[in-house]
Amino acid sequence: MTMFPTEEASHRMSTTGRQGRPARMSRDKIVEMAIEIVTQEGYSNLSMRYLADRLGTSTMGIYYYFASKNELLGFLFSLPDGALDDRVADSQDPFERVVRTSEAVARFLELHSWALAGVLDGHVGIEQLTRNHGRILTESVRDLGFDDREAAETVRGIWRIVLGESVMRSSPRPAVVGARDRSRVSGRAGGSTMPSVAETVESYLAGRLARVHRRLPSG
User: Fold this and answer.
1) Any idea which residues the entry calls the DNA-binding region (predicted)?
2) At what angle do helices 131-143 and 148-170 cross, to 10 degrees?
3) CATH of 27-78, one of 1.10.10.60, 2.115.10.20, 3.40.50.720, 3.60.10.10
4) Among residues 33, 79, 163, 217, which one has the fewest Cβ atoms lying within 10 Å of its Cβ?
5) What is the per-residue burial (b if ≥16 Cβ within 10 Å, else e) of 30-46?
């Protein structure tokens, strides 16, 4: 399983790099080129040697900043994106935290096509991608009254909703004839009947909670 750096380590790497690093290279340049490669050529073409060649440096110039390709990928997927509002993370309502966190992950994947491709192609797991968001989501689901098994099933269901929504958002819209058809495939605009990720997650959570409550002993 791909090992990702801790949040503390990611922050430390983002500001310091490794001692003795070449002056002409920077972490930002490496990250920018890595994203360009995976976006234009795919994850299978990303290697430390190829990355160094594209940047006009030696592989050691890359290793000063990242010990391995896995560490580099981990750093890419832990980049702060601002998608999750701190006010949502601090919300006292676990239901709201679940819904808003799900929306944040969907926005991240919509904004960063390279991240969605990495998940769909199996180069990174959704749990690793959403390491910080996933922690908030899992804790919030448990706060709703689910036991560990039910919480795990619920979180997996939410990830499927988020991924499906992200794929739909990123798919090219088909050319259709007629205002009704255009409205149906154009997303949220124009009175579309397509539910948002928030509405879908809310309905899913309500159904899960109803089933749990029915199983609870009365009195």
Assistant:
1) 47-66
2) 130
3) 1.10.10.60
4) 217
5) bbebbbebbeeeebeeb
- Tens place of pLDDT for every residue, the chain, 219 residues? 444 455 444 444 544 455 555 447 899 999 999 999 999 999 999 999 999 999 999 999 999 999 999 889 888 877 665 555 555 666 789 999 999 988 888 888 888 888 888 888 888 776 666 666 677 888 999 999 999 999 999 999 998 999 998 888 777 655 544 444 444 444 444 445 568 999 999 999 999 999 877 765 554
Nearest in space to 79 (alpha carbons), one of 124, 143, 49, 142:
124
Q: How far apart are CA 74 and CA 70, in angstroms?
A: 6
Q: How many CB atoms lie within 10 A of CB 68?
A: 12
Supply 9's token pair.
Answer: 């380590």
Residue ranges covered by each domain of the chain:
27-78, 80-170+205-211
Task: Map tokens 């949220």 to a residue.
Answer: 188
Largest CA distance in the chain: 71
CA–CA–CA angle 194, 164, 73 (5° rounding): 140
